[in-house]
Amino acid sequence: MNRQSHRLTFGVLAAGAGVFALLQSLITPALPIVQEAMHTSQSTVTWVMTAYLLSASVFTPILGRVGDLVGKKRTLVAALVALLTGCLVAALAPNIAVLLVARVLQGIAGALFPLSFGIIRDEFPPGQVPAGIGNLSAVIAVGSGLGMVLAGPIVGALDYRWLFWLPVIVVGATVLLAWRYVPESPTRSEGSVDWVSSLLLSGWLVALLLPVSQAAQWGWGSARVLGLLAVALVLFALWALNEARSRNPLIDLRVMRLRPVWTTNAAGLLFGGGMYALWAFLPGFVQMPTSAGYGFGSSVTGAGLLMLPMVGAMFVAGILGGRLAGRFPAKAQLVTGALLGAVACALLAARHGTPADVAVAAGVFGLGIGLAFASMSNLIVQSVSPAQTGAATGMNANIRTIGGSLGAALMTGLVTGHLQPSGRPLESGYTHGFALLAACCLAASLAALLVPGRRRRPVAAPVEPAAARRDAEVPLG
């Protein structure tokens, strides 16, 4: 693969993964508008996010495994087609039920993350893999944050449906480019998909994430929440037992038990709790009217502008993290990123009286996200064989999502637990919530310290990446 091909392949992967990441946060600020336009309730419209979350959680590890078996390119194209279909259906949705179906279709594209990382590992020269993964992680992180910035201007200038029409245009072009220019990875796993494991994995993920994401409405002590959590525990045990006995495990539990993998996943769970919860609640905090005694009364667009330091810092840190991998190892980046997240949340808990206070904290947190995202992906990729890259990185993404759901649920309980006579949250709810998120990020840094400093041998013998057999190492740019 020559230099131009590398650039084109990376551009296609970045476009697909970036749009999916964008859709994670793009619709959130517009939920009240969607609720009014579709004449539905607040509890129902929250399913626009929940359906997307559940779908991505189910399909990310499954399609990551399918890509390892049948080919990453064809699976990537299929995921992009699902994303394109979901965006088109969402843009045309006449009611909330159709919109929810569209969000499920969009969630299938969560597999773009592990598939893209696997293609980079298979096709790029070994010396350029950390930079490629770091750059793609930066794009994913920026896309996730950029949605909060772009939602206000798009809805204000056009209509909420353009939150889906614009991705239709980008994803449509990306499908064609991926089919034409992304090479099919030569590295394949042997075996087949264990569909019993797939069903059990889907079952325990849904049974876990559904009550966690809805606990604020249903109540943590409600029969629905406790019952579903019990079902999740039983299904998880059955899944683990089936995986241990399967000839073709969906996710090789030996890989999950590798110290570099489980420690990175533990850090991802905790850091994800802080990151996703901050994304969900910081815009609401700055939009709170000053009559509440805090907040700035910002519009959706104004709140997005306050998030710009975070987005810019994420991009810079993600790019630099991959390029400095030799002198600043992935473990050190993960520890540093989590510590920066803890510092940012502590700053918000202590000082949040002016927009400058929030912007500074957001920028610090963005640096932490950029470093942590790139380093987690690199640590997983370096610790498993090429044939296991899709499933392992997909599971890491899932674990971050689970952490985010737990963090958001806990933050919801603190913020909405005590209200003013006006019905608005007390400032102390946000203060205690930011302090909790600081503790989550600090715990993530401690978990990252347990990551081995040296790379360990993967469970399966690694297959030499295709690019390693080529003559020259071509820089990503």
Task: Give a brief outline of the structure.
The chain has 477 residues and is mostly helical. It has helices spanning 3-26, 31-37, 42-45, 47-70, 72-92, 96-107, 112-123, 129-157, 162-181, 195-218, 223-245, 253-256, 259-287, 300-306, 308-323, 330-350, 355-383, 389-416, 427-449. Helix 1 (3-26) packs antiparallel against helix 7 (112-123) and helix 10 (195-218) packs parallel to helix 18.
Attribute tags:
about 475 residues, mainly alpha, Growth Hormone, Chain: A, about 75% helix, globular
CATH level-1 class of the largest domain: Mainly Alpha
Q: Which sequence of SSEs, written as H and E, runs from N to C?
A: HHHHHHHHHHHHHHHHHHH
How many strand units?
A: 0
Rg (C-alpha, Å): 21 Å
Largest sheet: none
Shape: globular
Strand content: under 5%
CATH topology of the largest domain: Growth Hormone, Chain: A
* Gap between N and C termini: 14 Å
Protein name: MFS transporter
GO molecular function: transmembrane transporter activity
Subcellular location: Cell membrane
Keywords: Antibiotic resistance, Cell membrane, Membrane, Transmembrane, Transmembrane helix, Transport
